[in-house]
Amino acid sequence: MNDMRPMERKVDTKEIKFDCRNVQVYYGDTQAIKNVDVKLEDRTVTAFIGPSGCGKSTFLRCLNRMNDTIDICRVEGNLLLDGEDIYDRRVDPVQLRAKVGMVFQKPNPFPKSIYDNIAYGPRIHGLARNKADLDDIVEKSLRRGAIWDEVKDRLDSPGTGLSGGQQQRLCIARAVATEPEVLLMDEPCSALDPIATAQVEELIDELRENFSVVIVTHSMQQAARVSQKTAFFHLGSLVEFGETGAIFTNPKDPRTESYITGRIG
Amino acid sequence: MVMDKTEQHITRAYDRDLEAIQAHIMKMGGLVEAAILDAANALATRDEELAEKVRSSDRAVDELEAMIQSQAALTIAERQPMAFDLRTILAVMKIASNLERIGDYAKNMAKRTSVLVQMNPIEDGGSATRRMAKMVEVMLKDALDAFVQRDPELAEDVRQRDLEVDQMYNSLFRNYLTYMMEDPRNITACMHLHFIAKNIERMGDHVTAIAEQVIYLATGVVPDENRPKADRTSVETGEGV
């Protein structure tokens, strides 16, 4: 029977990419994340859903230590990427972020050419030996970002001159240029029109063949469409985590039910 | 901890839409229940006028079904229902189809009744059929109550009761076979009576399907096929009757 599931729903692997144990996050005295235990699978799209302020973005930002930049933020517990603690003293956050890329809510291309937007990461990480190598990486990344055909004739124009949807796909292309293993997306479509949203969703589905994708979204339908696993956060706790299909048709926790059906929860 | 299903949506128009669709189901259910009883009474009392009424009232059932299906489609498009709401819409669409089929069977009973009143009555032809129809009507009423109350236990009870309907059908099947063997002049009437009994037996199956939808709606799990069945007429030869 399992073989009769639609292909794109299939979770191909049970390998754990991120093993998060007993994670607590504090902003000063306020606890933003409480006792979160979750295992994120490789080559799987995991959606984080929950009302504003529930901690889903905070938790997402722990996965590549983006919270390091906030002075009053303190992270406790273990976040193991392929078995290694990313908060270990010996881990260089810059190297970590090359492995765990991120796409933000608002498209934020560098004020540089389209080419340099993509080439920047590979250059500083020394991923290209020469100009030809770099050209290949730029083309490959832009193709993965599903934007190559639209920009191939104007790689020297500024990235900021693109439309919102194109800018977001450029940012995704930039994020995949360093060959990350995990891609974090914080509401990547909330500033996009339905067509650009569909293009990004199509892209997420393709990216899943090579990466783990973790996406924070306020659109329940988007979570249901693009993810294989869904995590529901509420008041800093992980309330429910499971197969996306089960969460949206028959959630186990009444708080999940209230939230996803649009009731006051 | 169970979510209070009466808890309201933030958009109250959504609640009104869902309530309206469910009210239509109840209205449709009421019409179909009446059609079952009227069809059985028309047969038992050889009342041609009542039979005609059953035939003409099926149109309202069909119209309600079409209305429910289009409202359900609209709700899916407008609200993208999730979880319990999604199961409600899915259940409502299937229940409407099942009710429509039951209505068709009642209409067919009434058609055959119009033919039967032109013939000599068969001994016990009407009253046993009426008992069987009454049983199915009560099952339908309970299944719809279970739907309103989201009561999986009552729905399961309805599901189990289909066994009795099957047994009554088996016994009627044997009776009609006996009458036909006794006197070939009974064959036409008995064939009609047999189809009527079979119609009621099929109604029971549709009521069972409604009960299963209620279980899915309330629990999120479709019940498995483990339910007693007793319609064995399809493998019987008639020998030894």
Please describe the structure with a list of short key phrases separated by commas or semicolons:
heterodimer; A: 265 residues; alpha/beta; Rossmann fold; six-stranded mixed β-sheet; four-stranded antiparallel β-sheet; 10 helices; 10 strands; disordered N terminus; B: 241 residues; mainly alpha; Methane Monooxygenase Hydroxylase, Chain G, domain 1; 6 helices; 78% helix; elongated
Structure described in brief:
The complex is a heterodimer of chains A (265) and B (241). Chain A has helices at residues 56-62, 93-99, 114-124, 131-144, 148-151, 164-177, 194-207, 220-226, 244-249, 254-260; strands spanning 16-27, 30-41, 45-49, 73-81, 84-85, 100-103, 182-186, 212-216, 229-234, 237-243.
Overall description:
The complex is a heterodimer of chains A (265) and B (241). By secondary structure, chain A is α/β, with parallel strands linked by helices. Chain A has helices at 56-62, 93-99, 114-124, 131-144, 148-151, 164-177, 194-207, 220-226, 244-249, 254-260, and strands spanning 16-27, 30-41, 45-49, 73-81, 84-85, 100-103, 182-186, 212-216, 229-234, 237-243. In chain A, strand 1 (16-27) and strand 2 (30-41) form a beta hairpin. The longest helix of chain A has 14 residues, at 131-144. The two termini of chain A are 36 Å apart. Residues 1-5 of chain A have low confidence and may be disordered. Helices cover 78% and strands 0% of the residues of chain B. The termini of chain B are far apart. In chain B, helix 1 runs antiparallel to helix 2. The radius of gyration of chain B is 20 Å and the shape is elongated. Chains A and B meet through helix 8 and helix 10 of A and helix 3 of B.
